[in-house]
Specification:
The protein is an all-alpha fold. The chain is built from 3 helices and no strands.
């Protein structure tokens, strides 16, 4: 007996899959841990590399990146 072709007999192409798949939702300009870390290090160096203010450097880096400044 021959097999009938059903809805699962032909695999979808990548184009078909992307047309039907919903696009991911979320913030477009997500600030990553790495970006904050990099900016905090730049602030640390700008202060002369003096230790003891890492929390302030981190907070400043977050503020600057959220406001779009670097």
């Amino acid at each position: 007996m021959a097999r009938s072709s059903g809805p699962h007999s032909h695999p979808r192409t990548a184009a078909q899959a992307s047309e039907q798949a919903p696009e991911p939702r979320g913030p477009r300009n997500v600030i990553t841990h790495e970006q904050i870390s990099r900016r905090a290090y730049e602030i640390f160096l700008a202060r002369g590399g003096l230790h003891g203010n890492h929390e302030q450097d981190w907070a400043q880096a977050e503020r600057e990146l959220k406001l779009g400044r670097q």
